């Protein structure tokens, strides 16, 4: 998924990480609701895939519900404090659910190396790992199609489903290890291990949109403390 042309990966990454600082300032439900609403206003217009964002947010909702129940049961049965804990989780999860689909590993690597001057070996290894994570979903579907063609699909009772899921996970592990081996050979053949100077695929400009998004991220980090 392609991000807007006026936004780079570093500002998107800052939008995911900086609100974590503000989450510690949420102690009750009302400030938490206000801050979560501010996040929706600040980043909601960047969402391009509602279904994918909803799937990512689902894990955060489950975590928020569980911490609400546990805080209520073991924290003095204070509903306001319990809902505040839930809003704290959502305040952390929501930016990542909305912005991470816009992060492209290759562009992020270019900016980390050229803008932040991180070690090239670390950057290239991280980019390769992120690209492998992106492809895991498609590889899982390929494994499932191959096993279904052999009559080994996820049909039947729960015990059979668990066994077939475990077998599919093992097959995915084998495929991933093979691809990792091929990738390491390809990187070594291109002088990755011994290179002292490295070029990068694309330029890493800092645009006006990046400055604006960075200011918004700092504002969201400070908002819970100011409102609270």
Please describe what this structure looks like.
Helix content is 73%, strand content 0%. With 228 residues, the protein is mainly α. The chain has 2 domains: 9-103 and 206-227, no CATH class; 116-189, no CATH class. Helix 4 (50-74) packs antiparallel against helix 5 (79-99). The longest helix has 32 residues, at 158-189. The chain starts with 8 loop residues before the first helix and ends with a helix. The model has no long low-confidence stretch (mean pLDDT 85).
Keywords, separated by commas or semicolons:
single chain, mainly alpha
What does the main sheet amount to?
Answer: none
What is the strand tally?
0
- Shape field: flat
Uncertain segments of ≥5 residues (pLDDT<50)? none
Mean pLDDT: 85
Structure in a nutshell:
By secondary structure, the chain is mostly helical.
Lay out the secondary structure.
Layout: H1 9-17, H2 19-23, H3 29-43, H4 50-74, H5 79-99, H6 105-114, H7 120-149, H8 158-189, H9 208-227
Helix pairs in contact: 1-5, 1-9, 3-5, 3-9, 4-5, 6-7, 7-8
């Amino acid at each position: 998924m392609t991000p807007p042309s006026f936004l780079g990966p570093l500002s998107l990454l800052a939008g995911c990480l900086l609100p974590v600082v503000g989450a510690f300032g949420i102690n009750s439900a009302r400030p938490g609701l206000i801050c979560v609403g501010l996040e929706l206003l600040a980043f909601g217009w960047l969402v391009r895939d509602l279904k994918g964002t909803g799937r990512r947010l689902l894990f955060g909702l489950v975590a928020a519900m569980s911490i609400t129940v546990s805080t209520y049961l073991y924290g003095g049965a204070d509903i306001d404090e319990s809902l505040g804990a839930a809003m704290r989780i959502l305040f952390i999860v929501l930016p990542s659910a909305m912005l991470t689909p816009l992060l492209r590993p290759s562009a992020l690597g270019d900016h980390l190396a050229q803008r932040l001057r991180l070690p090239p070996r670390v950057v290239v290894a991280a980019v390769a790992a992120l690209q492998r994570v992106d492809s895991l979903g498609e590889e899982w579907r390929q494994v499932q199609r191959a096993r279904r063609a052999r009559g080994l699909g996820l049909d039947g009772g729960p015990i059979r489903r668990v066994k077939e899921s475990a077998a599919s996970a093992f097959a995915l592990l084998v495929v991933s290890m093979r691809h990792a081996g091929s990738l390491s050979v390809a990187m070594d053949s291109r002088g990755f291990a011994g290179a002292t100077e490295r070029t990068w695929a694309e330029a890493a400009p800092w645009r006006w949109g990046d400055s604006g998004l960075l200011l918004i991220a700092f504002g969201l980090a400070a908002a819970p403390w100011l409102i609270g």
